[in-house]
Amino acid sequence: MDLMNSFYERAKTLNKTILFPEGTESRTIKAVSEIAQKKIAKPVLLGDETAIKAKASSEGVSLEGVEIINPVKDSRYEEYSNKFFEMRKAKGMTIEKARETLKDPIYFATMMIQSNAADGLVSGAEHSTADTIRPALQIIKTKPGISVVSGCFIMYVPNSTFGDNGLFVFADCAVNPDPSSEQLAEIAISSAETAKALCDMEPRVAMLSFSTKKSADHPNVDKVIKAFEIAKEKVPSLEIDGELQADAALVESVGQKKSPGSKVAGKANVLIFPDLQSGNIGYKLVERLAKAHAIGPFLQGLNKPVNDLSRGCSVQDIIDVTAVTAIQAAGK
After folding, report:
1. Which of 29, 111, 186, 201 sits between 20 and 30 A of 63, alpha carbons compared?
2. What is the pLDDT of residue 203?
């Protein structure tokens, strides 16, 4: 796929250090070996060095060019423990608990990113989304003006004229089960930024619903209408429309009939789903039925890039997410 190849080439020029806290996970070990060989990033595995090397050996994988860090033996362990204690003491954190927490490779890796010792983090092959996001929220925190972390997919539908010749950003498909109007507005803003930064698209954002321009009356519709209004107020220059049914968002003849004069209706390339159920179902239907390439999920809204893998991810998925994480870290 040309888009993914372009991500690889962009990542190679950036030489970013990406952390993998699941150091003994077999798919991760295979992925970082290839990442190092192809110079997509500078990969770092976190965990017990003996255990990591034994696992790599059993898998027949070379770790040449891959750094290994054991948090407890690292010279920064005490420094990071103290910093984490200071960050969280108002929440009841003790220095003893901070030291214990920093033994966890995900927490140690997140502190490395916050301290500018690395550029990004990829996890989730073994850990839950909550386990990956929690340290990031506690340590890295969200961008100014954004209070919610969300998950998006870059979707490429082959042989399609919809979106940007088949290219879309779908959100939120991974994190927030039932976002409020305010959160939905922030997800739309974050997704537009993702579309620009990763796909070089001029975002046209559709706030999806089962209603178009109040064709139905329901609290779920009101939530989407309010989200549209909030997003437009926060970013007046954003090309956004809502609430729109999926066909009104994608098909120009339908969109212009239902929302005349809209710059988005019938031309949308960023689709914002009203809740996680519809987002997750939607991307998987498009992936399977339209044979689309779903790249992600990628987390949006954090000050620095942390990305959460599916526990069913493949080695190739890890490599793909790493390339995008490197680009996110560079902000380009």
Report:
1. 111
2. 98
| Amino acid code (one letter) for 25 | E
Q: Which of 154-158, 288-292, 295-299, 300-304 has the lowest mean pLDDT?
A: 295-299
Q: Angle at CA 34, nearest 5°, toward 136 and 327? A: 45
Write the CA distances from 87 to 70, 79, 117, 232, 289, integer angstroms. 23, 12, 18, 34, 47
Q: Is 116 exposed, middle or buried (0-12, 13-18, 19+ CB in 10 A)?
A: exposed
Report DSSP letters for 78-94, one per residue: HHHHHHHHHHHGGGT--
- Asked if residues 190 and 234 have their Cβ atoms less than 8 Å apart, the reply is no
Write out the DSSP string of 55-116: HHHHHT---TT-EEE-GGGSTTHHHHHHHHHHHHGGGT--HHHHHHHTTSHHHHHHHHHHTT
Who's near 197: CB < 8 A, 6+ residues apart? 327, 328, 331, 332
Q: Which two tokens stand for residue 135?
A: 């340290």
Q: Is the dihedral of CA 183, 185, 190, 195 positive or negative?
A: positive
Do residues 208 and 246 make contact, with C-beta atoms less than 8 angstroms apart?
yes
150-293 shares the fold of 2-141+302-330? yes
Domain locations in the chain as residue ranges: 2-141+302-330, 150-293
β-strand pairing of 17-20 with 42-46: parallel
Instruction: Return the CATH class of domain 150-293.
Output: alpha beta
CB 176 within 8 A of CB 137: no
Name beta bridge partners: 207: 242, 272
| CB within 8 Å of 269: residues ≥ 6 apart | 163, 164, 167, 168, 169, 195, 201, 203, 204
- The pTM of the full predicted model, rounded to 2 decimals, is 0.90
Res. 106: pLDDT tops 90? yes
Indicate the average pLDDT of the chain. Answer: 95
Among 270, 303, 5, residue whose Cα is nearest residue 139: 303
CA distance 203 to 322: 23
Average pLDDT over residues 144-173: 94
